[in-house]
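ok new one. same drill as before - C-alpha coordinates go in, u give me an amino acid for every spot. 155 of them this time. try not to just spam alanines like last time pls lmao
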Protein backbone atom coordinates (compact mmCIF):
# COMPACT_ATOMS: atom_id res chain seq x y z
CA UNK A 1 0.00 0.00 0.00
CA UNK A 2 2.80 2.41 0.89
CA UNK A 3 4.54 1.70 -2.44
CA UNK A 4 1.32 2.46 -4.35
CA UNK A 5 0.86 5.75 -2.48
CA UNK A 6 4.46 6.80 -3.17
CA UNK A 7 4.12 5.89 -6.86
CA UNK A 8 0.86 7.82 -7.10
CA UNK A 9 2.39 10.85 -5.40
CA UNK A 10 5.40 10.79 -7.75
CA UNK A 11 3.21 10.47 -10.84
CA UNK A 12 1.02 13.36 -9.70
CA UNK A 13 4.06 15.51 -8.92
CA UNK A 14 5.57 14.79 -12.33
CA UNK A 15 2.41 15.71 -14.22
CA UNK A 16 1.70 18.73 -12.05
CA UNK A 17 5.22 20.00 -12.67
CA UNK A 18 4.65 19.52 -16.41
CA UNK A 19 1.50 21.63 -16.28
CA UNK A 20 2.91 24.34 -14.01
CA UNK A 21 6.53 24.27 -15.16
CA UNK A 22 7.77 27.61 -16.40
CA UNK A 23 7.97 28.74 -19.00
CA UNK A 24 5.12 27.22 -20.94
CA UNK A 25 5.37 27.44 -24.71
CA UNK A 26 2.33 29.17 -26.14
CA UNK A 27 1.37 29.14 -29.81
CA UNK A 28 -1.48 31.09 -31.36
CA UNK A 29 -3.79 28.54 -33.02
CA UNK A 30 -6.23 29.86 -35.65
CA UNK A 31 -8.96 28.04 -37.53
CA UNK A 32 -8.44 29.42 -41.06
CA UNK A 33 -12.05 28.98 -42.20
CA UNK A 34 -13.56 30.96 -39.32
CA UNK A 35 -10.88 33.17 -37.79
CA UNK A 36 -11.37 31.48 -34.42
CA UNK A 37 -8.14 31.96 -32.52
CA UNK A 38 -6.78 30.96 -29.11
CA UNK A 39 -3.46 30.73 -27.32
CA UNK A 40 -2.54 27.02 -27.25
CA UNK A 41 -0.12 25.72 -24.59
CA UNK A 42 1.84 23.72 -27.17
CA UNK A 43 4.24 22.37 -24.55
CA UNK A 44 1.28 20.63 -22.85
CA UNK A 45 -1.02 19.66 -25.73
CA UNK A 46 1.56 18.03 -27.97
CA UNK A 47 -0.59 15.65 -30.02
CA UNK A 48 -3.36 16.24 -32.51
CA UNK A 49 -6.41 14.12 -31.73
CA UNK A 50 -8.78 14.51 -34.68
CA UNK A 51 -11.37 17.00 -35.82
CA UNK A 52 -14.55 18.05 -34.00
CA UNK A 53 -17.90 18.81 -35.63
CA UNK A 54 -17.84 22.06 -37.55
CA UNK A 55 -14.35 23.52 -37.85
CA UNK A 56 -11.36 23.09 -35.59
CA UNK A 57 -8.92 20.66 -34.05
CA UNK A 58 -8.66 18.39 -31.02
CA UNK A 59 -5.42 18.04 -29.06
CA UNK A 60 -4.29 15.90 -26.15
CA UNK A 61 -1.37 15.56 -23.80
CA UNK A 62 1.24 12.94 -24.66
CA UNK A 63 -0.02 10.73 -21.81
CA UNK A 64 -3.70 11.21 -22.76
CA UNK A 65 -4.68 12.57 -19.35
CA UNK A 66 -6.01 15.86 -20.70
CA UNK A 67 -7.59 16.98 -23.96
CA UNK A 68 -8.53 20.21 -25.66
CA UNK A 69 -10.92 21.06 -28.47
CA UNK A 70 -10.78 24.33 -30.37
CA UNK A 71 -13.94 24.59 -32.40
CA UNK A 72 -16.17 26.93 -34.39
CA UNK A 73 -19.65 26.22 -35.65
CA UNK A 74 -22.39 28.24 -37.34
CA UNK A 75 -24.99 29.79 -35.06
CA UNK A 76 -27.82 28.99 -37.47
CA UNK A 77 -30.61 30.00 -35.09
CA UNK A 78 -28.77 33.19 -34.08
CA UNK A 79 -29.07 32.08 -30.46
CA UNK A 80 -27.86 34.19 -27.59
CA UNK A 81 -25.22 32.55 -25.39
CA UNK A 82 -27.92 31.72 -22.80
CA UNK A 83 -30.25 30.14 -25.39
CA UNK A 84 -27.39 28.23 -27.05
CA UNK A 85 -26.23 26.83 -23.70
CA UNK A 86 -29.78 25.85 -22.72
CA UNK A 87 -30.19 23.89 -25.98
CA UNK A 88 -27.06 21.89 -25.07
CA UNK A 89 -28.80 20.65 -21.89
CA UNK A 90 -25.83 21.10 -19.57
CA UNK A 91 -25.76 19.00 -16.40
CA UNK A 92 -27.71 20.43 -13.48
CA UNK A 93 -24.73 20.39 -11.13
CA UNK A 94 -22.49 22.88 -12.91
CA UNK A 95 -19.84 24.19 -10.51
CA UNK A 96 -19.11 27.42 -12.42
CA UNK A 97 -21.36 29.26 -14.83
CA UNK A 98 -21.03 32.72 -16.33
CA UNK A 99 -23.29 33.88 -19.14
CA UNK A 100 -23.09 37.31 -20.77
CA UNK A 101 -24.55 38.70 -24.01
CA UNK A 102 -21.25 37.83 -25.78
CA UNK A 103 -20.10 34.51 -24.26
CA UNK A 104 -20.68 31.73 -21.77
CA UNK A 105 -18.21 29.79 -19.63
CA UNK A 106 -19.18 26.67 -17.70
CA UNK A 107 -17.24 24.12 -15.71
CA UNK A 108 -17.87 21.12 -13.51
CA UNK A 109 -16.73 17.61 -12.70
CA UNK A 110 -17.43 14.44 -14.64
CA UNK A 111 -16.00 11.38 -12.95
CA UNK A 112 -12.34 12.07 -12.17
CA UNK A 113 -12.10 14.94 -14.69
CA UNK A 114 -12.80 18.65 -14.69
CA UNK A 115 -14.41 19.94 -17.86
CA UNK A 116 -14.41 23.58 -18.90
CA UNK A 117 -16.20 25.06 -21.90
CA UNK A 118 -16.09 28.66 -23.10
CA UNK A 119 -17.88 29.85 -26.21
CA UNK A 120 -17.71 33.35 -27.65
CA UNK A 121 -20.43 34.53 -30.02
CA UNK A 122 -19.91 36.59 -33.15
CA UNK A 123 -22.47 37.63 -35.71
CA UNK A 124 -22.76 34.19 -37.31
CA UNK A 125 -20.42 31.81 -35.47
CA UNK A 126 -19.84 30.27 -32.08
CA UNK A 127 -16.12 30.07 -31.20
CA UNK A 128 -15.33 27.55 -28.44
CA UNK A 129 -12.54 26.06 -26.39
CA UNK A 130 -13.30 22.87 -24.45
CA UNK A 131 -10.82 21.42 -21.97
CA UNK A 132 -10.86 18.20 -19.91
CA UNK A 133 -8.19 17.47 -17.30
CA UNK A 134 -7.71 15.40 -14.13
CA UNK A 135 -9.64 16.76 -11.14
CA UNK A 136 -6.75 16.04 -8.76
CA UNK A 137 -4.66 18.52 -10.80
CA UNK A 138 -7.30 21.26 -10.86
CA UNK A 139 -5.21 23.97 -9.18
CA UNK A 140 -2.21 23.25 -11.41
CA UNK A 141 -4.43 23.86 -14.46
CA UNK A 142 -6.07 27.10 -13.24
CA UNK A 143 -3.63 29.52 -14.92
CA UNK A 144 -3.53 27.53 -18.16
CA UNK A 145 -7.33 27.39 -18.44
CA UNK A 146 -7.68 31.09 -17.59
CA UNK A 147 -5.06 32.11 -20.18
CA UNK A 148 -6.71 30.04 -22.90
CA UNK A 149 -10.20 31.24 -22.01
CA UNK A 150 -9.26 34.91 -22.05
CA UNK A 151 -7.32 34.57 -25.32
CA UNK A 152 -10.25 33.07 -27.27
CA UNK A 153 -11.44 35.30 -30.10
CA UNK A 154 -13.25 35.04 -33.42
CA UNK A 155 -14.63 37.05 -36.28
Amino acid sequence: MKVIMVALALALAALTSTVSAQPLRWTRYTIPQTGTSVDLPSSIFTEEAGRPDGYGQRFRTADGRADLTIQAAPNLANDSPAAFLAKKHPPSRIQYKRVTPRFFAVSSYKGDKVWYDRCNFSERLVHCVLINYPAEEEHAWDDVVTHMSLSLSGK
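The chain has one domain: 2-151. and btw The mean pLDDT is 88.
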